[in-house]
Each structure stands twice: as structure tokens, then as C-alpha cells.
């Protein structure tokens, strides 16, 4: 079960990284 | 709920202390997640400060950003496996290694997506794939990516590739260093965002920090372990192809562990070699004489020759590690063991007995046959010192067996545990399939996740 928690953390980390990368790109491209 | 030790209700202050210990662990776990994300994202966003290069299209910038993030995740992999007790404690070592494995797939996906996006929006860049004509910065990128792919292939299919643990471990470390150093060389070579020299130095310092973590775990930690050797005093044959190594500290007081924890053992060679293996302590943690025991089943690789370890041999022990340990508030302990998963339970039971704990303990223990039950007699003897109920579950029971047969599942748990199930503290250790089944069964019984602890013994 704690592994499932770790899997969720991996998923959340991946999602946060992609969203923040898009934010970085947005700031660079449109500001 | 009343928390008792030795039959007596724990004082209110002790109950509060035990509750606050678990919330401190949760807070520490959350703090490390935030620090991890900061280490991944902050170096990238630092590039937005100071002088800016000319703006580029969104997808170009996005591909570059995921490249940075992928590289940062790769670098932090050295930290996840650096065995920092303070970091790993709230999670348990097996969960950290599980995260290490899974997040590497995210890093590889990000690193590979970085050039693919660029190739789609600027097909002329495909020429950079030719490493003979490409500039060095592109060659480094290719080297980093190929190393990463090799790491993943070797980690996922190590047994199919018939790689020994040691050969795999050495190539894993070498390829990881190549992937990270080539990645940073690619970034510095391109230098698009490094108009301000401090940005270049920030990323180079970050890489030095990641590699420093490797130096810590491969040089400084082994140096410490080397100064605290142990000597094998007995190699005892147990039931079920298992051998117990009894060890005593040589010239030092020994380590203090909590029941259920494990250590990395190096039997052959020095601690600098990548030949240490994780094993649970099977002895009582309450003795305080520094002597420790590890019980090891022949399962292949290093363990296949465990019976040949000579008495008197000097060995090295790095530990203790792991969050799989008793000491939480509980009205009773429920230990669920499969096969050699009994070793941490043996340590828990011996410790509870030595501490005079009178709370009820139920041990559900799955084995192949009656003769295979490791510690069968020792467990029977512990019944005299503990309020202990043992339920053997046999895969191949002998003729006339009236006990449980098959595997430990929700029905077995329901038959032997008194309600309310959510008040007990559960510990599960055994093969992956058994652990998945027991964890699902506990969820069926509405046992909250905070009440059960599990450790998989094959996490490397």
C-alpha cells in the first residue's frame, strides 16, 4: 500500500514537472 | 483506545508521544517531497532571472524545460540511493527504492521527449543524430540519452540478461555518472541560457553536489563501516534452507537497531566493493550487547553460498535502516509473514518478549511445508514468554493437517483476528504476491493505511 503511495508520488511529480515546464515555456515564449 | 505495555495502560503522556512521533514522520515525509520538487524545479526557474536570451517558440522552450527537469531528476537519483537515514525513515527503504525505479522512467521519458519535440518542430535538427558530423554538444546529448536507455534496459531485464548483481551494480553506477555528466556537458556546450556566468556555475555546482552524494555513499560511508567491523561467531542452520549468521562487534560497541530494521551486509571483500546485500536483523533489539543476527535464505546470487561462510570471518555491516518497526500505539500486534519474511518478525517477537510486553500478538505465517517452517521451534518457545498465537498456513500440508492451508487471504485473517480490525497494528513481510493479497484483504477489512506496515525483501 505504501508502494501505491510511492506510485502516486511518482505520478504527481511527473505531472507537476510537466505543468511547471509548460509554465516556464509560457513565461519565455509569451512574456 | 487504550495503549498498553506489559499489561499496564500507557500513561497519557506516552500515548501522546507515540501519536506525535507518527505525525512528525508524516510532516518530515511531506517536507522531503517539497525539498525534492524544489531541487528539480528551482534550478530551471533560476534561469529566468538576470539576462535573457531572445524568446523562442513555446514548444522549443517546453522541450528545453523538460530536458532540464529530466536532468535534475536524474541527478537526484544519487540522493535517493545515498541511504540517508533521516530522509528514508518516514518512508521505508523499499518505498524509496521503488520511487527511485519508477521516477527514473519519468526522467527517461522527459529526456527522450526533449529532442523528439525539437525534431518535430525543426526537422533540420535530425542531422544532429549523426554523431560523426554533429558538434560536441549534440554528441554529449546522444551519449547521455543512450546511457540512460542502457540503465533502464539493464535494470528492468537484469535477470533475463543474466547479469550478476555485482556486474549490474557497477555498470549501473558508471552509466548513471556518464548520463549525468554528459547531460550537463550538453547543457553547458549549448549555453543558451548561460549568458550570466553564475547560471552556468549554478548547474555545474548542482552536478558536483549530485556526484558528491555518490562519493558520500561509495567512499565516506564505507570508510565509516570499515572502522566498525564484525566477526561471525556462529553459522546456524535453520529450517527452510535458511542460515542464521551470529555476529559480534570487533573493537566497538556495535549498532543499536529497532526490531524489524535491516542492515547492508558485506561478507566477502571490503565495504568499498558493491557486494553488500540488505538483510533483516533476526535477533532481539533489547539485548544491548551489540551482538546481532541475520537469518538468510538461499535464494540465488550471493545467498546460494551462505552456508559456506566460515566462523571467525570479519564482515561489515551498514545500518540500521528501515521504517518497518514496532513501537506504534496498538492494542495488539498482528504479524503476517511469508517464507523468509519471518526474520524481521522474529526480531520483533524476541524484543517484545525481552521487554516483557504482555499485549496479544497474532502471527500468521505462510510456509510451503511443515518441515520448511523457519524458526518453528523457537516460535513455539516464545509462546511461554508472550501472549502469542501462531497460525501456520501451509501451501503443501502433511496428511492429517487440520490447520490453515493455501495462502494467507482475507478469510484467514477474518477467522483468526478479533474485531475491531482497525485497532490492531499490522506488519507484513513476504513475497510480493502475498503482500499484495494481504494488503488488499486489510483494505477489505477497513483497516486504515496508517495501521499497517509492509516491507518487501527484494527491493534491489
Describe this entry's structure for a reader.
The complex is a heterodimer of chains A (31) and B (460). By secondary structure, chain A is mostly helical. In chain A, 94% of the residues lie in helices and 0% in strands. In chain A, 29% of the residues are buried. The mean pLDDT of chain A is 90. Chain B has 460 residues and is α/β, with parallel strands linked by helices. Chain B contains 11 helices and 14 strands. Residues 1-11 of chain B have low confidence and may be disordered. The chains are: A mainly alpha (31), B alpha/beta (460). The A-B interface holds A 1-3, 5-7, 9-10, 13-14, 16-18, 20-22, 24-31 and B 33, 36-37, 40-41, 44-45, 48, 52, 55-62, 64-66, 68-69, 73, 91-92, 94-95, 98-99, 102-103, 106, 109-110, 439, 442-443, 449, 452-454, 456.
The helical percent of chain A reads over 70%
Overall geometric form of chain B: elongated
The gross shape of chain A turns out to be: rod-shaped
The N- and C-terminal alpha carbons of chain A lie at a distance of: 44 Å
Low-confidence regions of chain B = 1-11
| C-alpha-based Rg of chain A, rounded | 13 Å
CA distance, first residue to last residue of chain B: 39 Å
Largest sheet of chain B: 6 strands, antiparallel
Specify the biggest β-sheet of chain A: none
Q: How many DSSP helices of chain A? A: 1
Total count of strands of chain B: 14
| Alpha-beta classification of chain A | mainly alpha
The arrangement of helices and strands of chain B along the chain is EEHHHHHHHEEEEEEEHEHEEHEHE
Strand proportion of chain B, as a percent range, falls in: 15-25%
What would you call the structural class of chain B? alpha/beta
Indicate the low-confidence ranges of chain A by residue numbers: none
- Sketch the topology of chain A as an H/E string, one letter per element: H
Q: Please indicate the count of domains of chain B.
A: 3
List the helices and strands and how they pair.
The complex is a heterodimer of chains A (31) and B (460).
Chain A: H1 2-30
Chain B: E1 4-5, E2 8-9, H1 12-46, H2 58-80, H3 85-88, H4 93-121, H5 136-156, H6 165-190, H7 197-226, E3 229-238, E4 242-249, E5 262-266, E6 277-280, E7 292-297, E8 314-321, E9 333-338, H8 342-354, E10 361-367, H9 376-382, E11 388-394, E12 404-405, H10 410-416, E13 425-429, H11 432-444, E14 452-455
Parallel strand pairs in B: 9-10, 9-13, 10-11, 11-12, 13-14
Antiparallel strand pairs in B: 1-2, 3-4, 3-8, 4-7, 5-6, 5-8
Amino acid at each position: 500500500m505504501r508502494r501505491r503511495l510511492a506510485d502516486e508520488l511518482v505520478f504527481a511529480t511527473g505531472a507537476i514537472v510537466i505543468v511547471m515546464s509548460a509554465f516556464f515555456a509560457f513565461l519565455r515564449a509569451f512574456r | 483506545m487504550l495503549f498498553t505495555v506489559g499489561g499496564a495502560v500507557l500513561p497519557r503522556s506516552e500515548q501522546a508521544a507515540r501519536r506525535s512521533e507518527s505525525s512528525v514522520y508524516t510532516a518530515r515525509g511531506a517536507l522531503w517531497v517539497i525539498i525534492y520538487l524544489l531541487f528539480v524545479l528551482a534550478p530551471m526557474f533560476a534561469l529566468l532571472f538576470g539576462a535573457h536570451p531572445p524568446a523562442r517558440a513555446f514548444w522549443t522552450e517546453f522541450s528545453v524545460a523538460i530536458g532540464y527537469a529530466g536532468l535534475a531528476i536524474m541527478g537526484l537519483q544519487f540522493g535517493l540511493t545515498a541511504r540517508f537515514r533521516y530522509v528514508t525513515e518516514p518512508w521505508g527503504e523499499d518505498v524509496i527504492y521503488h520511487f527511485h525505479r519508477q521516477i527514473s522512467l519519468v526522467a527517461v521519458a522527459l529526456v527522450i521527449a526533449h529532442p523528439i519535440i525539437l525534431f518535430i518542430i525543426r526537422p533540420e535538427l535530425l542531422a544532429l543524430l549523426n554523431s560523426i558530423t554533429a558538434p560536441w554538444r549534440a554528441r554529449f546529448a546522444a551519449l547521455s540519452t543512450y546511457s540512460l536507455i542502457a540503465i533502464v534496459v539493464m535494470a528492468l531485464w537484469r535477470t533475463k540478461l543474466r547479469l550478476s548483481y555485482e556486474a549490474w551494480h557497477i555498470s549501473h553506477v558508471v552509466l548513471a555518472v556518464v548520463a549525468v555528466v554528459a547531460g550537463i556537458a550538453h547543457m553547458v556546450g549549448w549555453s543558451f541560457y548561460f549568458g550570466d556566468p553564475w547560471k552556468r556555475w549554478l548547474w555545474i555546482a548542482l552536478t558536483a553536489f549530485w556526484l558528491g552524494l555518490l562519493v558520500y555513499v561509495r567512499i565516506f560511508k564505507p570508510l565509516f563501516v570499515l572502522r566498525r567491523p564484525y566477526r561471525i561467531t556462529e553459522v546456524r542452520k535453520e529450517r527452510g534452507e535458511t542460515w542464521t549468521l551470529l555476529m559480534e562487534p570487533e573493537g566497538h560497541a556495535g549498532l543499536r537497531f529497532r526490531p524489524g530494521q535491516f542492515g547492508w551486509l558485506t561478507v566477502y571483500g571490503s565495504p568499498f566493493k558493491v557486494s553488500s546485500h540488505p538483510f533483516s536483523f533476526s535477533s532481539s533489539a533489547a539485548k544491548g550487547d551489540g551482538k546481532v543476527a541475520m537469518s538468510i535464505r538461499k535464494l540465488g546470487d550471493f545467498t546460494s553460498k551462505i552456508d559456506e561462510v566460515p566462523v571467525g570471518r570479519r564482515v561489515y555491516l551498514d545500518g540500521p535502516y528501515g521504517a518497518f518497526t514496532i513501537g506504534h500505539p496498538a492494542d495488539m500486534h498482528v504479524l503476517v509473514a511469508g517464507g523468509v519474511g519471518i526474520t524481521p518478525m522474529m526480531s520483533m517477537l524476541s524484543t517484545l518478549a525481552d521487554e516483557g510486553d504482555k499485549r496479544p500478538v497474532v502471527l500468521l505465517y505462510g510456509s510451503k511445508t511443515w518441515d520448511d517452517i523457519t524458526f518453528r521451534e523457537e516460535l513455539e518457545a516464545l509462546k511461554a514468554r508472550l501472549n502469542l498465537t501462531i497460525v501456520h498456513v501451509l501451501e503443501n500440508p502433511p496428511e492429517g493437517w487440520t490447520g490453515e492451508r493455501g495462502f494467507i487471504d482475507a478469510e484467514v485473517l477474518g477467522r483468526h483476528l478479533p474485531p475491531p480490525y482497525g485497532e490492531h497494528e499490522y506488519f507484513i513481510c513476504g513475497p510480493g504476491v502475498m503482500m499484495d493479497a494481504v494488503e488488499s484483504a486489510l483494505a477489505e477489512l477497513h483497516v486504515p493505511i496508517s495501521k499497517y506496515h509492509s516491507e518487501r525483501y527484494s527491493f534491489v
